[in-house]
Amino acid sequence: MDLNRWSGVIAEYRERLPVGPDTPIVTLLEGGTPLLEAPALSELVGRDVYLKLEGSNPTGSFKDRGMTLAVSKALEDGATAVACASTGNTSASAAAYAARAGIAAIVILPAGMVAGGKLAQAIVHGATIVPIDGSFDDALSLVLELTATHDAALVNSINPYRIDGQQTAAWEVMDVLGESPAVHALPVGNAGNITAYWKGYTAVEAAPQMWGFQAAGAAPIVHGAIVDDPETIATAIRIGNPASWDGATAARDASGGRIEVVTDEEILDTYRFLATAEGVFCEPASAAAVAGVLKHRDALPPGPVVCTLTGHGLKDPETAVTTGQLGEPVAPRLDAVLERLEL
Ligand code: F0G
After folding, report:
1. C-beta 310 within 6 A of ligand 1
2. For position 326, what pLDDT does the model report?
3. Residues 305 and 297: beta-carbon distance below 8 Å
4. CA distances from 151 to 62, 81, 94, 144, 234 (A)
5. Best of 163, 310, 314, 319 to mutate for ligand 1, by most ligand atoms within 8 A of CB?
6. Which value, in Å, is the radius of gyration of the alpha carbons in the chain?
7. What is the pLDDT of residue 42?
8. Model pLDDT for residues 205-222, shown as the tens digit of each residue
């Protein structure tokens, strides 16, 4: 068994990606993530459902696939810094890949709205962090201005290399399933991911229905209008004016898919279901895709369904801990433990 055979998404899909012999490859061996069968979910929806576990990437989210390419190309172009706005995961990934590349990372974040694990990553990898009294959408406008006037490469998904790298996830799904799924479901925030999957699928002439899900309080694409004050427990997708809005609607329309809302309650119910019935801990935003498939199960065409779980549950320990009841500690004696266990 060769445990080192996976060499990262650029090396694995090099001939389909915009790299040349002189591109310095900045990789943490991202990609090659599990496509896990989900028996409990399959039973509920009456289809073979698979979970693409993007939380298994090096920084714990799907962002690493696009970041390896964006940072490699920035380095090739002589950049000494990268910059992004983020609800958390992009900043964690940008900080890690910039550290690996030996360049600086600047991140602009909505203050108080980034889950603890993600913030920890940006801090530990040495990013320069600017929290703002504003939303992700404000942060994105600021970083666009910043990178237009200063010497830092933009690594939000407006950067086409992010989308190019991200599409490798669709190729992996097809490589493992041996076919395109009937439906591919994912959460939609800034809409880069759904845009990238659709690009990846159509590049090899496969066409699953693309099903995207937004949180009810942050659903600009569903309602066809910018949301000024987006609100949801799923902070990763707390976005009111997605940069890749057109990409998302194109993916929906060309694939015969749908983009719908799921409530915070549906998101949290599904988050707990995945953890307790499938043994998979994802972050709340990731559960939105599965919540949407459950909600619209009657509309599923025949054939396999893939749901991308975009980030690991440990990204957001606050949500996990506050949704559980630990109780007061008991005395360190067996009788006290048995009493608590009601045994
Ligand atoms: N799921 C997670 C865990 C995310 O972090 C994001 C986006 C999404 C889903 C939505 O993906 O934006 O491509 O539609 N996070 C970005 C960030 C916005 O800054 O980390 P999208």
Report:
1. yes
2. 85
3. no
4. 26, 7, 16, 12, 33
5. 310
6. 20
7. 98
8. 879 999 999 999 999 999
